[in-house]
Amino acid sequence: MVSATVTVQNSLGLHARPISKLVKSLKGCSDTVLLNKGEQQANATNIYQMMALNARCGDEIRIDVNGDTENDTLFMITDLFQNKFYET
């Protein structure tokens, strides 16, 4: 398992559009990806669990990835966060 902590940089937080991008980017991925905000945890392939995190701009999220391609998956997810999910 690999982990990283990222900060939500999108001004609107993790709302439907970035969550959708994350879920779509994980389609076909066999790794288990969990996002943790404080005591809350969400499966990154479940839109409803992700919305329930209510992650706002400035919140820290710990990403846990477990699987055969965990390093590549973690890199892809942290890239999305660092680039504000490529929203303009």
Report on this structure.
The chain has 88 residues and is of the alpha+beta class. It has a single domain (2-86), classed as HPr-like (Histidine-containing Protein, Chain: A), CATH 3.30.1340.10. It contains three helices and four strands, in the order βαββαβα. The protein has a four-stranded antiparallel sheet. The termini are far apart. 22% of the residues are buried. The mean pLDDT is 97.
Topology:
Blueprint: E1 2-7, H1 16-25, E2 32-37, E3 40-43, H2 47-52, E4 60-66, H3 70-82
Query: What count of domains describes the coordinates?
Result: 1
CATH architecture: 2-Layer Sandwich
Q: Count of DSSP E strands? A: 4
CATH superfamily: HPr-like
Count of alpha and pi helical runs: 3
Largest sheet features: 4 strands, antiparallel
Order of helices and strands: EHEEHEH
Structural class: alpha+beta
Gap between N and C termini:
32 Å
- Low-confidence runs of at least 5 consecutive residues: none
Strand fraction:
25-35%
Here the CATH topology equals Histidine-containing Protein, Chain: A
- Mean pLDDT across every amino acid position: 97
What spatial order of strands do you see in the largest sheet?
1-4-2-3
- State Rg: 12 Å
Percent helix, as a range, is 25-40%
Per the principal axes of the C-alpha atoms, what is the gross shape?
globular
Identify the CATH class: Alpha Beta
